[in-house]
Design goal:
FAD/NAD(P)-binding domain; single chain; alpha/beta; oxidoreductase; FAD binding; 26 strands; 8-stranded mixed beta sheet; flavoprotein; Glutaredoxin
Length: about 550
């Protein structure tokens, strides 16, 4: 018999997020999370949490009330991007200027990966789950109705071996994943030709402290981190040997070459060199083995997508594993993890590839064309608000949706803009205790049923919505929380008021309607209230 429900291999942001999502379940599965490194790294590594990731983490305030405050305290929001070509200023894009209206987080949070891991691990420990450090997976194999993992546990004077049996194993163990290799998954892609050097430093300069890209005979990216630290990423000069370690002087030379005005860097915290890969696994699931995060996909750093994508892999997978282990869903639900998330991975890989190749090209012809065209193209593109918002939704990951998924849908008569598989937009409501957001109602890791009264003469009253919600729960869905949203009335128990009707409008409800929201904040099914029978049929599949 398996000793565990789920073994999580790897305690980076993806593995920790998966563990937190599972530990927060009403009936949590038995889990163990292991990490080969004996200590959590203090290096910043990945350094941004995007609005969609912050939204998903905010679901945990019901059991970890300070989780978002802890992230914000250790990070800093980036409110603009600046672009320079050959030391000349091209354009600044300010994120405060109406970029997004349906999310409480308007900007991305610049935060060290070490701090991201620390906050999630702290929330996880609140459930009594601790990372088992100094434990590496030697091998993984499926056997009977489970998986056998051979672990090597670091001890004074050597290692001891332990064999663990579990129902499922999830490899969050990075680009060299043991789980991926053991499951026979292909990791398709390649290596970018460019070499890069990286430094975390302090700076004295004349420029605004925001995300900045400097283009010329190469590339310099400046990324403001908390505590006065700046990350510098520089395309490596061709006359440098690939094996040469970067020096502090290499970065001062790059700053002098690319940044206008007098700039001094000092107090280096971390200096390293690296090459970048772009790869994606051919399947996120093989039998009882799953991969997530860098074990499933590795990207260029363009847009800071990698860590955020991995954390959202974890959110998608966790509720499905929990539902199957509770006996509420069949094994087929687990196939939708690959169905939904691999498409996201491919799209992000292609999008970051194009952006990165343009920014970091070392081809002399493309360098000339890039530097000549960007001063003209970028101001034009950034003056198109619709284009800018579309790009922001891609980078922020607010635009991710699963419309083609086999487990989402909408009523047959539904003709609104939203569809099953779309992210549920946020918006402000009036609750009994004051302002509250739509997603603020939907905390925790379960399903939620949003019931809209409708507007004007079409509206139904609070009592009717209570009848609908109670009937749905009695119909085999007692774990689903329902929330009533009235266009007019008085906020009360389980009732919020949409005083300006903007939330009704954003969801497309002039008539009374409903949204069944998945645990990961995406729409499972929606329709007007007169199609409730279709919702019941859908929910009972």
């Amino acid at each position: 018999m398996p000793e565990l429900d789920i073994l999580i291999i790897g305690a980076g942001p993806t593995g920790l997020t998966l563990a937190l999502e599972l530990a927060a379940q009403p009936t949590p599965p038995s889990i163990r999370i292991i990490e080969a490194d004996p200590l959590r790294s203090d290096k910043s590594r990945a350094f941004v949490l995007h609005p969609r990731t912050l939204e998903l983490l905010a679901r945990h305030i019901s059991h970890s009330p300070s989780i978002i405050e802890n992230f914000i305290e250790k990070g800093r929001f980036n409110d603009a991007i600046q672009i320079f070509v050959k030391r000349g200023f091209v354009k600044e894009l300010n994120f405060e200027e109406g970029m997004v209206s349906d999310c409480q987080f308007k900007n991305s949070l610049m935060i060290s990966q070490a701090d991201t891991e620390g906050v999630i691990e702290g929330a996880l420990e609140g459930f009594g789950v601790c990372v088992d450090r100094g434990v590496r997976a030697e091998s993984v194999r499926e056997e009977g109705e489970g998986v056998v993992a051979v672990l090597k546990i670091a001890e004074e004077g050597g290692e001891r071996e332990e064999e663990v049996r579990c129902k499922y194993v999830v490899g969050c163990d990075g680009a060299h994943s043991v789980v991926r290799k053991a499951a026979g998954m292909k990791f398709e892609g390649g290596v970018y030709p460019q070499d890069f050097i990286l430094a975390d430093v302090r700076m004295k300069w004349e420029q605004r402290a925001c995300l900045s890209f400097y283009l010329g005979n190469g590339f310099l990216g400046v990324f403001p981190l908390p505590d006065g630290i700046f990350r510098l990423i520089v395309s490596r000069a061709k006359d440098k040997g690939k094996a040469d370690e970067p020096t502090f002087e290499d970065f001062q030379d790059a700053v002098d070459e690319f940044v206008p005005g007098k700039t001094e860097i000092y107090d280096p915290v971390w200096i390293t060199r690296f090459r970048l890969h772009h790869r994606i696994v051919d399947c996120y699931r093989k039998g009882r083995c799953f991969v997530a995060g860098d074990a499933a996909h590795i990207h260029s750093p363009a847009g800071g997508q990698g860590m955020n994508t991995g954390m959202q892999d974890a959110v998608n997978l966790a509720w499905k594993l929990a539902s199957v282990l509770r006996g509420q869903s069949s094994d087929a639900l687990l196939d939708t993890y690959d169905e939904e998330r691999r498409k996201v991975g491919v799209k992000l890989l292609n999008g970051t590839d194009r952006a990165f190749e343009m920014m970091a090209t070392s081809n002399p012809v493309w360098l000339f064309l890039r530097n000549a065209l960007i001063p003209w193209v970028v101001p034009w593109a950034m003056s198109n608000q619709a284009m800018v918002q579309q790009r922001f939704r891609f980078i922020s990951q607010l635009g991710i949706r699963y419309r083609q998924s086999s487990i989402v849908g909408q009523a047959s008569t539904w003709n609104g803009a939203l569809r099953g598989g779309d992210r549920a937009p946020d918006g402000e409501l009036k609750g009994p205790g004051g302002p509250i957001s739509v997603l603020g109602l939907c905390t925790g890791v379960g399903f939620h049923l949003l019931l809209f009264s409708g507007i004007g003469d079409n509206a139904v009253n609070d009592q009717r919505l209570d009848e609908v919600g109670s009937d749905f729960r009695k119909n085999g869905h007692d774990s689903v929380k329902y929330h009533k949203i009235l266009a007019t009335g008085i906020a009360g128990n389980n009732t919020s008021v949409d005083e300006d009707s903007k939330v009704h409008e954003s969801y497309g409800f002039s008539e009374p309607g409903y949204i069944l929201m998945r645990p990961d904040g995406y729409i499972s099914f929606l329709g007007t209230l007169n199609t409730l029978d279709e919702l019941k049929i859908w929910a009972n599949k």
